[in-house]
Amino acid sequence: MATIKQYENKKGKFWLFKTYLGIDPATGKRVETTRRGFKTKKEAQLALSRLQVEYEKQGLVKEKNDTFQEVFDLYLEAYKTTVKEVTFIKNEIKFRKWILPAYGNYRIREVTVKKAQMILNKWANETDQYRNLHSTAKRVFKYAISLGIIDINPLENVMMPKRPTKTAQEIVKVYTREEFIQLMEYVNSKSGGYRNEYDKTLLRFLFYSGCRIGEALSLDWSDIDFENKTVSISKTLSQTKYGYKVSTPKTENSVAKVPLDEETLSVLKKWSIQQRTVMFRLGITNPTMIFCGMYKEIITHHAIYSRMINITKKAGVPFYGIHVTRHTHASMLLDAGANMKEVQDRLRHTKISMTMDTYGHLSKETKEKTVEKLIQHLGN
């Protein structure tokens, strides 16, 4: 029992069919459906025949016209319960900037291997993150399979483009000994004022502790053990949907007591006095955070990033981002003769492979310098 007829709307003339398929054994109700949008009567007849065959095999198959955007919205709701908020925000930004503009309007069943390949090739020409973007988009299609919307993942069958591989030297930027001295001499020359003393103390701490910027900005004075000469790292400043908050650190291995040198401890003691003095004049007492603003407000990564652009420009050294402090710390350790295991422990990497992948080239340069010193010493 089926009806096929023509209808008209603003877009033109089309065909539809209405049909009764039987009784749903799960609900005991009549199964009736209407399908629209066919350009010809023949298309409507073929679609009706396919539907009747499918229903006989597996029951009513609902129209699966979900767009990538619709599946993504469902995926995102489930995904955000599985990761930390800061990770969720970073991935959501990735979706909004790259993945949704590419896939969002496609009906997910219409995405072919060819379309996926074209999107991937375009990404490969535009960003180093193309592999990660592809992997992330692929998870949405995998989720669509679990929802029964598609049977195969078209993104599984593309060919991964190759880009010229960047060397570790190109990826990891560090200051030379001369550049580091030049930067610190400039910072230390800017005495007086809350901001100058703040910058001086923060950069000293970052370069000599190897801590991440988020870890430093979350520190309280109670985290510094002046007697045992350590700083306790147990939290980090993270970006959330509603601003910044102090949360758990990057990994479990990040939690540790990091030894500090005498001079850094001395700079911190001096900063403690200066901070309290400035705040007292403003009627503010008992500062708890080490690197907060003069009104006890949180200072964000973005603020420090902007400051570093200005400081490095005036100091006459390259700007390599704020993470350069951690990379330079590792470089100085290797120059001083530390081995890779010691650098791993100091930086609190979970695996030594991470340390090797990031700083292996620095170790090679250090070894070459060591050989040169030996030759010079032996006079040959």
UniProtKB/TrEMBL annotation:
Keywords: DNA integration, DNA recombination, DNA-binding
Pfam families: Arm-DNA-bind_4, Phage_int_SAM_3, Phage_integrase
Superkingdom, natural source: Bacteria
Residue ranges constituting the Tyr recombinase domain according to the UniProt record: 170-372
Family annotation (PROSITE patterns): TYR_RECOMBINASE
InterPro entries in the record: AP2-like_int_N, DNA_brk_join_enz, Integrase-like_cat_sf, Integrase_catalytic, Integrase_recombinase_N, Integrase_SAM-like_N, Tyrosine_recombinase_XerCD
Protein family according to the UniProt entry: Belongs to the 'phage' integrase family.
UniProt name for this protein: Tyr recombinase domain-containing protein
